[in-house]
Amino acid sequence: MSDIAVTHVPHKRNIPFAQEAAGALVILALGAIGWFLYPDDLAFLTRLIGIAFLVLSLDLVTGYCGVATLGHAAQFGVGAYAAGIACIRGVSDPVALLAVGLCAGTVMGLISGALITRFRGLPQLVLSIAVGQLIAGLANKLSWLTGGSDGLSGIEPGKVFGVFGFDMYSRTAFVFSLGVLVITFVVLQRFVRSPFGLMCRGIKDDDLRAKMIGVSIYPRLVVMYGVAGAVAGIGGALTAISTGVVGLDSVSFERSAEVLVMLVLGGAGHLWGALAGTVIFMIFEHIVAAANPFHWMTLVGLLLILIVVFAPRGLIEPVVLLWAKFKRKGSAV
Amino acid sequence: MRTIFSIMIDAVAYGMVLFIISIGLSIMMGLMRVVNLAHGAFAMIGGYLASYALRDLGVHYGVAILIAVVGTILASIPFELLLYRRIYRKSDPLIQVLMTIGITFFIIGIVNFIFGPSLKPIPLPQTLSGPLDIGFRMLPTHRVFVIACGIVVALALWLLIEKTEFGIKLRASVDHSDMADALGIRTEIIYAATFALAIGLGAFGGVVGAEILPIEPFYALRYMVTFLVVVSVGGAGSILGALSASLLLGLADTTGKYLAPEFGDFFFYLSVIVIVFLFPHGLFGKAHA
């Protein structure tokens, strides 16, 4: 996983923000398909979008920085709990709640980043797990604050921009989540191509070399973790707002493992890979797990083994190669 | 005093169970450098097999343990040949983590499909179930049995690794695999034998520890983290490390649960963070380049 070279093509200055606009349009188109074809499953689709934030966030640290973590749900859960608690204590504006989730996620990201990115390999993995479990333990035990194992319920956010109230068909929640996803995705697309994002890639590909050219690795990884925490926090807050409950599952080890599976399924190191993995995994889970959870586990296990053995860069890789080929052909003509 | 004593007995027994299961993982990680998250899944297979043998075949407890260990090793062979061999020593941790999580999910699904998703009790024989009188105090016999098992395993492993030819070859492969290969040691056979040993110990621990870590459908997921943490705290590949880490974490966990039940896991993971942060290669581990 350390051999992805960034091929930098000095592209012609054509339309500014074309790539971002294309990204936004594709997500909106997918959202529209979901809206019109599956109007009864909007609650599920909203949940999917919430998880997509967590997978994107994980992509930032795992795909772009090469940090192996099995505790990433901590950031998501902290964002969700923070938004939920703020809502119960009287903050009802959904946008303000998102900001609360974002801040909480960022703080959590910085803290766990400071602990986790100090090491590489096994200690890193174990620290990430331990941090995740610590948060899960706290969420369970501080029941006066978090509701403990009953979960935090009774989150009733106000209207979006004071106009659109949340309904039981999740229509508002879906559109709201989709909008936030589009904005976040566009920002992240810029962010991963910024000098900072490219440097993180460099650290992932060869940290010794990065050190040799004078990059201080640790602070960069911590900052990246903070950004990832912000993204995960938004996802958590969105989930809390749209479902109205926050349960212990949002900080669980299973959640962390699941999102890692989603990311690798789609392809780590690509924002589109993260999205694709989330969509494929969640839809399959929705269908198969409802039938028999153990068949689902067998299937996921098998799929994961096959992916690691035959397509370690995820399902997005053939698409990326095809796209690169297409582009090269285009510029040669 | 009475509380302290019972905490100690429970903590040591719990620590010994952790030790028996984790030592296999520790040796594997020391030798093959594989972060094997599926270790608990093999312990679970052992538990399911023993439960089946005891309750449906009605065999003796000792025979059930034998069936469990041998059966689990046999079941693990295809995994070793097809999958683990690819990731020995070379892949980065992310690939290993993903593959072994995949194996864990796969095993959970298959095992529960075959044996049914329910709690699998492993009934103890008469001789192990009652209390044991040690003169000044009564102890649960099973706890004493588990502690004895742990001590025997530790001693046997120490003898195997320090005093036998296999042990010499194993240590040579741990220190410098390529050089051992060049000197004519068949490292792939050493790897396969170590894998079988690790899995067998895992299955054994799963069966004898079933009173303390009950065998249930999600056993492999629930304790996946615990075993990995023990190895990481102790240092991969060190018997002394695994033993001390098991006892230490067993003590932290049990004491936490007795004295502050509402914060049980919290203390466990807090101590893990502190130890791993201070000793990234474990208490008794060596830094591998």
SSE diagram, text form:
The complex is a heterodimer of chains A (333) and B (289).
Chain A: H1 18-37, H2 42-63, H3 73-88, H4 94-116, H5 122-141, H6 143-146, H7 171-192, H8 195-205, H9 207-212, H10 217-243, H11 253-266, H12 271-291, H13 293-310, H14 316-332
Helix pairs in contact in A: 1-7, 2-7, 2-10, 2-11, 2-12, 3-4, 3-5, 3-10, 4-10, 7-10, 8-10, 11-12, 12-13
Chain B: H1 2-32, H2 39-57, H3 61-87, H4 93-115, H5 126-129, E1 131-133, E2 138-140, H6 141-163, H7 165-175, H8 177-182, H9 187-208, H10 219-222, H11 224-234, H12 239-259, H13 264-278
Antiparallel strand pairs in B: 1-2
Helix pairs in contact in B: 1-6, 1-9, 1-11, 1-12, 2-3, 2-4, 2-9, 3-9, 6-7, 7-9, 11-12, 12-13
Brief synopsis:
The complex is a heterodimer of chains A (333) and B (289). Chain A is mainly α and 333 residues long.
SS field, number of helical segments of chain B: 13
Radius of gyration of chain B: 19 Å
Distance between the termini of chain B: 47 Å
**How many distinct folded domains of chain B?**
1
Query: How are the strands of the largest sheet of chain B arranged?
Result: 1-2
Envelope shape of chain A: globular
Beta strand % of chain B: under 5%
Helix content of chain B: over 70%
Shape of chain B: globular
What is the number of helices of chain A? 14
Largest contact between chains: A-B, 49 and 46 residues
CATH topology of chain B: ABC transporter involved in vitamin B12 uptake, BtuC
Distance N terminus to C terminus of chain A?
A: 33 Å
Q: Average the pLDDT over all residues of chain A and give the rounded result.
A: 84
| Low-confidence sequence ranges of chain A | none
Note the main sheet of chain B. Answer: 2 strands, antiparallel
Output the structural class of chain B.
Answer: mainly alpha
Low-confidence stretches of chain B: none
| Total tally of structural domains of chain A | 1
CATH class designation of chain B:
Mainly Alpha
